[in-house]
Amino acid sequence: MAFDLVAHLGAMTREVHNLEKDGQPAKAVFASRVYDTTPADLWDALTQPERVKRWFAPVSGDLKLGGRYHIEGNASGTVLECEPQKKVALTWEFAGATSWVNLKLTREADGTRLELEHIAHISPHWDQFGPGAVGIGWDLSFMGLARYLADPSFEMPPEAAAEWYGTEEYKTLVRTTGDGWGKADIAAGADRAHALEAAETTIKFYTGEAAPEN
């Protein structure tokens, strides 16, 4: 069955939150959607290495409270909280910087809602690229999970193939989600012109039209 990208994108919620973390100004990228499955199955898909690699990436380490994890080709970190089928909190250590990721699962009448919050201190990187810098990446993950739950038969995510990044599906996802994160930034109080410029910079980076200066 073909994956309905438009329906998936329409099911997503994107927000930017202004807050403090450890006494410093911070921003949170917040994404959520409801998946047509139970909390137990969704938790299993999020935490079991044999399932995670089929929609996200290979994950190794001590996947329990206080343990260290590593995502192949991506971040590492420590598990700060873990309440099975309800929530997990992690440090997200990537490129010499530490941020924080919180996942929450909530049973709803038609499935299970997954909420993701990625918190980072305000930095020049945020000022240049805005929430889409991490938001588009998380949108890719939400899409991969939706595709996998709809059809668990594939061994590796289709988007793991390099040629997928040249498809119209990929470009549509980047453009739609990049614009969405720009709007979320504006809704959170960012200057409209600056937010739209940052969103466009991020979209062009993800599509290969431009590389970051640093």
Automatic annotation (TrEMBL):
Residues of the Activator of Hsp90 ATPase homologue 1/2-like C-terminal domain: 36-149
Source organism superkingdom: Bacteria
Protein name as annotated: SRPBCC family protein
InterPro entries according to UniProt: ASHA1/2-like_C (IPR013538), START-like_dom_sf (IPR023393)
Cleavable signal peptide: none
Family: Belongs to the AHA1 family.
